[in-house]
Design a protein that fits this description.
The structure is a homodimer.
Chain A (H helix, E strand, L loop, with lengths): L8 E6 L3 H12 L1 H8 L3 E7 L15 E3 L2 H6 L5 E4 L6 H12 L3 E4 L2 H17 L4 E2 L10 H8 L5 E7 L2 H13 L3 H10 L8 H4 L2 H15 L9 E2 L7 H9 L2 E12 L2 E12 L3 H4 L4 E8 L3 E8 L3 H16 L28 E8 L4 H11 L4 E6 L6 E8 L4 H14 L2 E10 L3
Parallel strand pairs in A: 1-2, 1-4, 2-3, 4-5, 5-6, 8-10, 10-16
Antiparallel strand pairs in A: 7-9, 7-11, 9-10, 11-12, 13-15, 13-16, 14-15
């Protein structure tokens, strides 16, 4: 219970960008509330960032300054090392390791670090009796790591899904609502400062893939395996696909899906069609959503801001306050040594697919496409060919459930028929 | 960290209805998983229920039987007393108190018990170094108590809202979708076994009000005060109101809303209009939703099954596994002695209202109504009078934001004009 450990809990904060400054503000402004809730006072001992002189809108005079985050991590007056620098390697990794080796707890918002080194860091934390928490790394302010690790721990998890990159969802929403092309919506998001320095982290699905790999580890008790996430960005989604999908009652989302089946661990982050009336389909703009399906609880949907100063700082504080209250959890919900290493199963669960192709206007063209699908064992649920004024006819096909392998075979076959112009678009329809 | 306490965690389960039997099944069937996740084996020592002979679809032979739940609560071989009997007083209260006095942790699904005696029980738990957890008492499988108590603990909470009675939401959904009258939808829900033995617990808003009072205590650091919840059931919601609301882009929900303002603690559980396109507006059928708004995190929406064996057992297990992992939390998120006793503020926050009245067909009737509203300081945003074939004309008014007090004054004034037939319907429009 609180109040049994009246000593202050001392933070060392590395990284004073938007989120770091936000955490400092909350610790300063809500001191009484945080103490009331945890029974301990939360203090900041020292901070570190690249530039000491930058104005961050918060007074840092009372805190020791360290140029080197590793030195910060090892300070005697730091109980929790708060890592808000980012980056999968370099200073963030070195400082996190130094803190854990020194037996200090670590709270981080760094999805890349954990996606690449989660297993090793979890082992290091446990070997040193330290706690490593990362609520802020996934879906911003939504307490989804907590829900999955703790609240739903009595469940075997069947599926975890998520729209976890607000920038991609913003772009897709703007394409649908304003009829923008991908390039136009991308430029708009860029102008609003929504994109990472390397935009491919967002639109290539990498950032969201990092998050999915962390959720999968907790959900299935498996070692984090980001490299096995099937990644497909949103760059090939066209306004045409968005319109056709809408016309059939679907929306296109950059959707993460993970499942553990007898064939292995499926993790995919790719543009998918979801029913427009489902919670995922109704999610517009920069908001995040995570859907967790457990054998007991059924479907739980969590929705909230996935980024930004306040939401991310809220998640960082949640982890800090857990530690202040004495909660000591393993990193991924069970001892790191018991996390299973399972093979990757690439989208082996059958699903319906949406196909869009441009058919040369020749007699028998459609029959050739249909017969290629049939030969691959892919059956057609719905098909539409549209009126057209140029040499090719737009054709839409919704398949019945099929494996990705069968679909790939059909796609290869289609290009070999000579009646299809360019590469067909193929998007999975995720049933939610 | 797990594995530091290898002794088994021993449960005594009182109440073997649907949820109790569900908990027994999970503990039996998932023993290895639960141990992997917590580092401790979870065992059942003893059980108690009203009838020993009833077939509950689960083998209880391995467990000691107690006819008296108080005796169960005090057994030396019980570490956690799991209270799944229900009822705000009687055996549930006596056994919970006995367990806490004996220093045993308690996990309960009993919203009525905590809504009526939460403060005293929290004090008793703390005085005895015991933990009292109740995730299953609110919104079934949704880990909302955990989200509010822990994940969002760095926030000052601005508002908590919830649709937390699936039966009411089912009835309202069926009225809208199938055009049923309230009585028809009620009868249908009754036939499906959705109603409590005392239906007023559901349709009178009492059950949902219990839940709201628990969320408010955690959100605002206040003592549970169920008696101060403004309760209005769904019995007066007519199909006419549902249709008119839909026509204006709203849906009617039995919505709990709580806020802490300078005027005091607002808690209301009443039929409200919410935008049809909002997450709350889109919630149909028996599903629950809780919306939490914090100063840092913004709006978090949690959605899932609010009742049933699996979801409720999932929540009970969540609490048990927390304790197995060594997590020790205060009942309402801070020490019971620091929970504030604040005055109740009855809907003092201004809101727009929906009014429906039947106007006698006389010259000047509408002018009288409009002038009564104006005198009370209530201004009109939208107004419609419909064509009619009988003596009275249906009139709909949506007001601008007004206080409940001003609105009540206007409603009294309306009945005194002599031009309004019967009592006007007045429903708050909650802006979400």
């Amino acid at each position: 219970m609180p109040n049994q450990n009246p000593s202050p809990l001392r933070l060392g904060i590395a990284g004073l960008g938007t989120v770091g400054a936000g955490v400092v503000k909350i610790v300063r402004q809500k001191a009484a509330l945080l103490t009331e809730r945890t029974g301990r006072s939360i203090e900041i001992s020292a901070v570190s960032a690249r530039s000491r002189d930058k104005d961050r809108g918060v007074n840092l005079d009372a805190y020791a300054w360290e140029d080197d985050p590793v030195a910060l991590a090892k300070r005697d007056d730091v109980d929790i090392f708060v890592e808000l620098m980012g980056g999968s390697d370099g200073p963030a990794k070195a400082a996190t390791e130094a803190a854990l080796r020194a037996g200090k707890d670590v709270v981080t918002a760094n999805k890349a670090l954990l996606a690449h080194h989660g297993q090793a860091l979890a082992e290091l934390a446990e070997a040193n009796g330290a706690v490593l928490r990362f609520e802020a790394a996934v879906a911003g302010g939504i307490p989804v790591i907590k829900a999955l690790t703790e609240g739903l721990a009595g469940n075997e998890i069947d599926r975890v899904m998520g729209v976890m990159n607000g920038t991609c969802n913003y772009i897709l929403t703007r394409m649908e609502d304003a009829g923008l092309s991908y390039d136009e919506a991308f430029a708009e998001a860029d102008g609003l400062g929504y994109l990472e320095a390397d935009p491919n982290l967002d639109v290539g699905g990498i950032d969201a893939g990092h998050k999915l790999s962390l959720l999968a580890s907790i959900a299935y008790g498996t070692q984090v395996n980001f490299d096995a996430v099937e990644l497909e960005g949103i760059g090939r989604v066209s306004i045409e696909d968005i319109r056709q999908a809408a016309d059939m009652g679907f929306r296109i989302k950059l959707l993460g899906v993970s499942r553990l089946t007898g064939r292995g661990l499926e993790q995919s982050m790719a543009p998918c069609l979801v029913p427009a009336t489902s919670p995922l389909g109704q999610l517009v703009g920069g908001t995040n959503m995570v859907v967790i399906e457990g054998d007991q609880v059924g479907q739980i949907v969590l929705r909230g801001a996935g980024a930004g100063e306040g939401p991310t700082a809220s998640a960082v504080l949640g982890d800090i306050l857990d530690i202040a209250r004495g909660t000591r959890l393993t990193t991924f919900g069970q001892p790191a040594g018991t996390l299973k290493s399972v093979p990757a199963a690439k989208a082996t669960t059958p699903a319906p697919y949406y196909l869009r192709l441009a058919l040369f206007d020749k007699p028998g063209a459609l029959a050739k496409v249909a017969s290629v699908l049939g030969e691959a064992g892919v059956s057609i649920n719905r098909m539409r060919q549209y009126d057209h004024s140029d040499d090719t006819a737009p054709v839409l096909i919704v398949t019945h459930k099929t494996t990705r392998a069968a679909l790939e075979q059909a796609l290869v076959g289609m290009t070999q028929t000579g009646v299809v112009d360019g590469d067909p678009v193929a998007l999975r329809i995720e049933q939610v």
